[in-house]
Amino acid sequence: MEAMRVSRVEAAQNRERIIEVAARLFRERGFDGIGVADLMKAAGLTHGGFYGHFASKEDLMAQACARAQEGSLATLHQVAERGGENGLSAVASAYLSPAHRDQPGEGCVLAALGAEAARHGSPVRSAFTQGVRSVLDMLTRLVPGKSQRVKRERALAAYASMIGALVLARAVDDPELSEEVLQSVLASIAHTGGEKAAVQSTR
Question: What 3-state class would DSSP assign to 148?
Answer without folding.
Answer: helix
